[in-house]
Amino acid sequence: MWPLISTRSAVGDALGGWPPPVLDPAGPYANPLATLSWVLFGGAGLVFLVVLAALWIALFGTAARKEKLGGTRAIWIGGVAFPVVVLSVLLVWGLSMTGSLTAPIRGDEMRVKVTGEMWWWRIAYLGADGGAVLHDANELHIPVGRPVVLELESADVIHNFWVPRLSGKLDMIPGRTNIMRIQADAPGVFGGQCAEYCGGPHALMGFVVVAHHSEDFARLMTARRANIRPPAPAHPDLARGAQLFGSAGCAACHRVAGTGANGAAGPDLSYVGSRQTLGAGILPNNRGTLMGWIGNSQAIKPGNRMPPYSMLSSDDLRALAVYLEAQR
Amino acid sequence: MNGAGCGSCHSAPGVWPEGEVGPSLDSFAQQTLIAGRLPNRADILADYVRNAPKYVPQSGMPAMPLTEEEARDVAAYLYTLGRR
Ligand SMILES: [Cu+2]
């Protein structure tokens, strides 16, 4: 069924296994949801106990008690007054509690556009003027302790953006921009998952959010914006991999910043070597999984929009993997 | 094996996904040779799953991020597959 349940995939680790850690919030936009949930669980538990007590009286109580329980007064109190009061209080309290989630955007927050694609995530960090300054995919980097405004869009069908430890769920709807905020209180890796059925490999449409200390985050963004890469370890296959990336047709669908590869049909691979996951949050990222994905991603994620490359030799696969590992 | 992602190339019971780049390992314990070349012995297998290119330089099976201990556990698991 859902592989995240039965296996240790990278995103499964980040999600903390199954069920998703919805009651383990890690930021101010997830806290109120967890508190609200606990209050609802507690309240439901109490009401359940009261109902059990009433049932007990109805079955085994004295005649006088039964009389009272069936009287008009009991019905007015238990059937009308109690629910009206409890539900009204809950509504007001719940709205005030989650009000912070819909508070207006201040305008000075960091903004990122996340676009749902079948079946991966396109990510664009936006500058002050709203234009994209950096492109990436399947992994969102944020600084800790600051709200990040996400502009959620879709390129095809309805998807849903969900990072259980950082936020509630919000639909990504074609032709619309939905705004959501997330914030992480401490550095860490938080798993995310598409939460609206979007066709075939929907359950394999995951991603991770990586929260960094502010200085680390600033350093990462500055380096990437200036296209300053950590030096690639010398490897005899590197040049061949780069050449194959063009000649095997990868560049038609994938972009690698600073090279001629500028395809837009698939995820940006400029930093794929430093990603925590592959295949949109489903595999660990190492040479083996890279080679396996390129060789036949259809056996891994059936129906995804990248063709299998059964015509490549093991040497070709290795060279491509070495080249992609160096894209950090 | 799930932690290292062997499933991106192999199928084996309890391992996800079920990749098709390498051979199925469903009845590996019945084989006499590893990769058609090496004697199928526990010590060689444990080393092979970590560093296949050392034995077969052109192999489609790359070195994998397993510790020695994990590799021994993987080998032990592989020997349970298809035992008659
Ligand atoms: Cu989706």
TrEMBL record, chain A:
Subcellular location: Membrane
GO molecular function: copper ion binding; cytochrome-c oxidase activity; heme binding; oxidoreductase activity
Domain Cytochrome oxidase subunit II copper A binding as annotated: residue spans: 107-223
Residue stretches spanning the membrane: 38-62, 74-95
Keywords associated with the record: Copper, Electron transport, Heme, Iron, Membrane, Metal-binding, Oxidoreductase, Respiratory chain, Transmembrane, Transmembrane helix, Transport
InterPro entries for the chain: CcO_II, CcO_II-like_C, Copper_CuA, Cupredoxin, CuRO_CcO_Caa3_II, Cyt_c-like_dom, Cyt_c-like_dom_sf, Cyt_c_oxidase_su2
Keyword Manganese: no
Membrane topology recorded in Swiss-Prot or TrEMBL: Multi-pass membrane protein
GO terms (BP aspect): ATP synthesis coupled electron transport
GO CC term (a single one): membrane
Record Pfam families: COX2, Cytochrom_C
Domain Cytochrome c: 236-328
Reactions this protein catalyses: 4 Fe(II)-[cytochrome c] + O2 + 8 H(+)(in) = 4 Fe(III)-[cytochrome c] + 2 H2O + 4 H(+)(out)
Function noted in UniProt: Subunits I and II form the functional core of the enzyme complex. Electrons originating in cytochrome c are transferred via heme a and Cu(A) to the binuclear center formed by heme a3 and Cu(B).
Family indicated by similarity: Belongs to the cytochrome c oxidase subunit 2 family.
Protein name in the entry: Cytochrome aa3 subunit 2
